[in-house]
Amino acid sequence: MSIDFPHVLEHFSLFLSALFNNKVVLTILVTFLTLGVKYALVKTVRNRAISKGKDKRDLVNNIKNFLNFVMLFLLLSLWAGELQTFALSIAAFAVAIVLATREFIQCMIGFFYLASTRPFRIGDWVQVGDIVGEVSETDWMKSTLLEVDIHKYEYTGKTLFIPNNAMITNTIKNLNFLKRYATHHFNITRDQSVNPYLFIDQLQQKAELYCEDFKDVAHRYSQTIERRLDVKIAGPDPHINVSTSEVGDSVVTVAIFCPTERAIEIEQKLIKDFMTMWFAAKRSGNIEPREGTEVSSDDRQPIS
Which of 187, 195, 189 is nearest to 239 (CA)? Predict the structure, then answer.
C-alpha cells in the first residue's frame, strides 16, 4: 500500500492554514510563546547575574515589562477588528442604557451621598426644597417622608416619596430640633386707634405665665441646641416686639420657645388676651390722641 505524499502534504498545508487563520489558536500560541520566551530570558539573566554576583533585577523587570507589552500589542493587533466592532456596540449600548436609566442612576448616586454624609436619620424632620416632612424610610431609589405642616407643627396625613436625586439638587434642612421644641413666631396686626404699649407688659406677663410649666425644660433644651449647633438661638423667655406695617397698622410680633404640640394653643391664648386688652383699652378711651392734642400722664396708665 503506497502513501500519496503530495495529497497528504496538501491536506497538512490546508490544516496548518486553517489553524493559523483561527484567532483563538493564534492567541493561545502567542501567549504561550511570549510567556515561554519571558521565562527563559528571565531565568538566563538571573542565572548569569548569580554566577557573576551582579544585581540584574532592573534588567529582569525591564524584560518582563517589554515582553508583556509585546504580548499585549500582538493580541490587540490580532483582535483589532473584533475589538473595534465590540467597542462600538458596547458604546452605543452603554449610551442607550445610560439615557434610559439616568434617573435611576442618579437616585442610586443620591443614596450613596445620603449614606456617606448622613444629613438626616430616620425620624428626623427635614425640609427638601419647599417640602417638609418626617423621614420614615430610605432605600436605593427614594426617601419616604410623612408631610408636616411647619406652621402648625402637625402631620398633614400625606406621604411623600422623594427621589434620592432630589436630595443632591436641593438644599436639605434638618429640622429635627423643631420636632420637640420650636421658636414659634406669630404676628397680631391692628389699626393704630389703640396704643399697644398700654398693655404690652401685661401681655408679656401672660406669655411668661403660659410658658412657666415647661420653662426649665425649655432652658435646658435651648442650651443643648446651642451647644450642638454652636449658635445662639432665641429663647427660652418669650419676646414681644411692636412695629408698624407698610400701611401704618400696629404689628405685635410674639416669639415663644415652647413644645411644638403646644405652640398653636399658646398662640391662640395670647391672641385672645391681646384682643381682650385691645378692645378694653378702646372702650375705656385709652386710645392714641389725634395730631395736635396733648396727652396727660393719666391717659397713658395701663388698664387693670
Answer: 187
Rounded to 5 degrees, what are φ and ψ at 257?
-100, 110
Q: What is the pLDDT of residue 254?
A: 92
3-class secondary structure, 303: coil
User: Grid coordinates representing 112?
Assistant: 450613596
Cα–Cα distance for residue pair 11/5, rounded to 1 Å: 10
Alpha helices, H only, the chain: 5-21, 23-52, 57-78, 80-117, 166-169, 200-210, 215-229, 263-284
How far is residue 113's CA from residue 118's CA, in Å, rounded to a whole number?
A: 8
Over residues 136-146, the pLDDT tens digits come to: 888 888 888 99
Q: What is the DSSP string of 228-282?
A: HHTS----SS-EEEEEE-TTS-EEEEEEEEEEGGGHHHHHHHHHHHHHHHHHHHH
pLDDT band at 298, cuts 50/70/90? very low
Between CA 272 and CA 68 the distance in angstroms is 88
Long-range contacts of 215-222 (CB under 8 A, 24+ apart): 218/181, 218/257, 218/258, 218/259, 221/180, 221/181, 222/181, 222/257
Q: Is 108 exposed, middle or buried (0-12, 13-18, 19+ CB in 10 A)?
A: middle
Contacts of 104 (CB under 8 A, 6+ apart): 141
How big is the CA angle at 195 (ends 192 and 200), to the nearest 5 degrees? 130
